[in-house]
Amino acid sequence: MDFDLRTPIVKLDKTRKAILREKIADPDITTRKLSEVLKEKYNISLSHARVAEIIKEMKEQEIFRETVIPNENYFIFAFMEMSFNNENFAEHWRRTYEYLVSSPNVVLFFTTDGIMRWKTLMVFRSFQEVSRWVHHFLKEYGVLIQDLDLQIIYRILKFRFDESLLDDVISESPDTM
User: Fold this and answer.
1) Which of 5, 52, 102, 145 shows the smallest number of beta carbons within 10 Å?
2) In what order do the strands lie in the sheet with 76-84?
3) Pick the CATH number of 76-153 from 3.30.530.20, 3.30.70.920, 3.90.76.10, 3.40.50.1110
4) pTM assigned to the model
């Protein structure tokens, strides 16, 4: 089976693509203003009430998320990646996974290919809290972990999804993304 990164998991119509693009460009745009932009830029006529309904549906379908993340001057951000002790994986992965998903320190948890499969973006209030968290994690869940790499993030140079990534998608097909 061929894997195509251009094939999305969720299919969107032209209206939802345009709304997504404009919300990325201006997350604080009002539904009234967005209704005007849709008419002017995309020739899509919707009331601001309908735009609000569509945005609510898109959030419920997790087409996009709205999250407030303080910048790195207020918290300590850390990036952690880990590889597994495969002998213990079957027995211990679920408990470790559930801990990471429920930890208030874990902002983003994702998997990748390669040796270091699980990765997290984490936030802490102090370097001592980082040390305590890692110590507790390894003490409780270390039987699953083969290697752990922890890096402190000192400066975030860019944290933005650029709306221009949707430009060609909107123009390619009016029906689906």
Assistant:
1) 5
2) 106-111, 118-124, 76-84, 145-153
3) 3.30.70.920
4) 0.73
